[in-house]
Structure formats: structure tokens, C-alpha cells
Write the C-alpha cells for this entry.
Amino acid sequence: MSRNLRIDAARLQDRLARMARIGALPGGGVCRLALTDQDREARLLLVAWMEELGLEVVVDAIGNITGTRAGTEPGPPVMLGSHIDTVATGGIYDGTLGVLAGLEVVATLDEAGIRTRHPIAVAAFTGEEGARFAPDMLGALVHQGALGLEEARAIVGIDGTTVGAELDRIGQAGPAPVGTERVRAFLELHIEQGPRLEAEGTVIGAVTGVQGISWAEYTIEGTSNHAGTTPMAMRHDPGLVAAALAVLVRRLAGEIEGQVGTVGRLALEPGLVNVIPARAVMTVDLRNPDEARLQAAEARLGDELARLAAAEGVTVTRRTLARFPPKLFDDALVGRVEAEARALGHSVTRMASGAGHDAQAFAPNAPTAMIFVPSRGGISHNTTEYTAPEHVEAGANVLLHTALALAMPVAGEGGA
Ligand code: HGY
Ligand code: MN
Ligand code: MN
């Protein structure tokens, strides 16, 4: 009977629309940077929805929010998690879809009167994006003990604040301990944020893992001087080296298989038309599904940057912001996602994730898998991010049935 169970698509769309009003940008999209007032408002709404659903809500010391639906047996939950923080020019689906679809799974099971042997938990992790406070997946890493609480609280953001100060300021440091909770399995529904599913006309991605991520911040110090009077041979211009580094990042992406590279932030100081910069501060995001190739890209970039800096007579300081090797998900659980998608009549393909996700923090400790749905035009981290309602519904139904299979419905009850 539970095979016929389906989520309430309109209710899920209503929650997405309500959440999208928090941090809404004038032209569309949202800005809910981690631990800002907008993030706090979203957290309060999420907790209110969890309480309406009768979930046992726990907030841990790094601000991760977990709402748990009891099973007939105690024990580690099947966790459906993602994030509700966004980048500054974010869409309404990145992260938020996975958390609200988790609530929809709970509401659907409640309506059908289905109990499960194992608990089902819905989780929203602090600071997944890493845009304000690096690294990304910060809250999930602390939750799983891969990053220490005090180390995380001490992280300084792009605006000079710290995680701890902002967490305390918005009153989101909870009583629950971190680092020790284990789950029975971890599932994350997420938009693909890339072009593949749409290009192939496929509705569901059964995600096999996440590619390696290397984030670094470079501070390049030179000699500030007059733009008109300083002979070119006398210059020590960090702006030149920064520009050459950005061109190098693009070149590496063309030369190393599977490599992508991005310069997302670049600031020149003092940043005036007639002043040779004193300093350039920039970020480089390198990713590759293959660890050896990612290391080769890092080494090539380091070597060429040293040569550029020596030639221009500037100094370079590198600060690692995030570094994750590629992570594989649980093959059997990926297969389960495929099977549930097919049973629901959806096309499905196995694929790797180009983006980082909270799921990768759980992969070493529990069977973990992700479900992707298409992003229109492959666009994300952009206010025009969009996923069609039928794809939202399909993904949430795959999440429902995969979660139900893992949490094991109690026979003979409700829709079971
Ligand atoms: O950058 C990422 O891959 C993720 O969106 N945090
Ligand atoms: Mn995300
Ligand atoms: Mn994102």
C-alpha cells in the first residue's frame, strides 16, 4: 500500500515560497548568508514548522537544527538533511529544497498513519555554503566530528566577524553536543546545480559522490605607487600578478582533465584609479573528481605563482579555506535511489556532484546518498535558479520512498 504514497506537492511549494520570502532580493532570489539575521529568521520558521509536525527539535552547539520523528524502536535515525543558508545571490532551491522536502516526508507519513521502526530526522546544517565563513559544509563537519567546535567558532568570515560571535549574536548556539551523533543512513535531496540532467532529459540523478574541493585565499603584497610617475620597470604591482593568476586558473582548467577553477573574489587595495595597488586579496576554487589531478593543479598553480611573484617583486601569502578529497557515496544506497526512482516511473542516471554538499560529511560514517533534480539551464548560485514543480515533486517522492525503505514501515499500519 505504501507504494502508492505520494507527497503533497502543493504543500511543499507553499513552504518553499514562504521560506523564499526570508532574505528575498528585489529582483528575485535570496540572500541568507550563514548566521545573519536572515539566516536566524529562516531558522525560527523551520523550527516552528518542525514543532507543528510534532518533531523533537534539537539545536546543537554549532547551530545545526534537527527535528526527529520517533520510530517504534529507539536508535540512530535515518537523516534527511541539507541547509537553509545561501550565497549572497542565491536561489530558493539550493539546500532549502532538501530540508523542506524532509518536512514533507514527515507530513506525508503522518497523514498516512505510517509509523517506522527507525526514527526519521530532518536536519538543517549551519553554514553549508562557506561563502561567509569557510570552509563549506561547516556545520555538518562539526556535527560529524570532522571539525572541532572551538576551531569552527574561531573562524573569521569575509566581513571580519567570527562564527562564534555571530552564532551567539543570533542566539543559535544550542545545548546539544556535537561530534558524536551517528545516523543509520543519510539522504540529501538537492538540485543538480549543473546542466547534465536537463540536457539528457533525465528527471532524477542518483549521486555517486562529490568531487574534490580546494579553496585558497591569496594575499599578494607589492609597492603602492603613483600610476603616472612610476616607470614600468620600477613597479611591483600585485594587481598584475592577481590578473595573471586568474588567467592561469582558467588555463589549468583547460589542460588538466576534469579540472574546473574559479576566481570568485578579487580585491585591490586601495582600489583607486591612479594608485598602483599595495595589495591584492583573491580566492581560487579548484575542483576535480580525481585527487591526484587536483593535487597536480594545486602544484602547477603554486609553482607558476612563485615564478610570477619573483618576476614582479611581490610577496604572496596563501591561506587554505577548504580542502576536501573526492568522496564516494554508498553504492548500495545509490542503487536504492535508482530503484525507487524507477519504481516511481522516473528516468534516472548515476552521476557525480560538481558541488560540495553536507552529505559528504556523513559519507565516512554512515551509508550516504543524494538525489538530484534538474536545474533549468544548469544555473545555480544565481538568483534565477529554478527547478520545475514536477521535478521538485519527483525528487521529494524519491526521497519519501527511499527514506521509508530505510526506516522500515511498521507492517499492517496506515498505508504500510
Ligand atoms: O561550493 C559548493 O560546492 C557548495 O555550494 N557549498
Ligand atoms: Mn547546496
Ligand atoms: Mn550552494
Observations:
- The chain has a mean pLDDT of 97.
- Residues 291-312 form the longest helix (22 residues).
- The chain has twelve helices and 16 strands.
